[in-house]
Write a structure and sequence with these properties.
Order of helices and strands: EEHHEEHHEEH
Largest sheet: 6 strands, antiparallel
Structural class: alpha+beta
Mean pLDDT: 74
């Protein structure tokens, strides 16, 4: 499984800053889900098969640190803090970006790097990298 970032960017009119909300997706499953086709529709592929987890990550303006998005951030941008709804929105409206691993190969290999993302919202961005 190769993981890639799916990014939804928002721009604040008042502060003119950009926030990024990120999902990690399985590239092959995302492409199947996105393209649909005659036999496969978006409804036939569950979101759990496309995303690595239902955790939504956030990179705020200025600090550049990746961390788990707070319920307040999700509520402010998406009008809900329910991860299922936010994941569905980002899948529909996000932009796919290739991930990079420390070796620079351009792919995140879950078997090597999937355990290193801190999803606890502790303020740390990546552990062990």
């Amino acid at each position: 499984m190769t993981l890639h970032k799916l990014i939804y960017r928002t721009e604040s009119q008042s502060t003119q800053s950009v926030d990024e909300f990120i999902l990690m997706v399985d590239l092959e499953e995302y492409k199947k889900w996105q393209s649909g086709g005659m036999l496969i529709t978006r409804e036939t592929i569950p979101h759990a098969q496309v995303v690595d987890s239902f955790d939504v990550f956030h990179v705020g303006p200025g600090n550049g640190k990746l961390g788990k998005a707070s319920k307040q951030q999700l509520e402010n941008v998406f009008g809900t803090s329910k991860n299922d709804d936010v994941v569905a929105f980002i899948l529909e409206n996000g932009i796919l970006q290739n991930g990079t691993d420390p070796s620079g190969s351009g792919i995140l290999d879950k078997s090597r790097f999937g355990q290193r993302i801190d999803t606890r919202g502790s303020g740390s961005s990546l552990r062990g990298v």
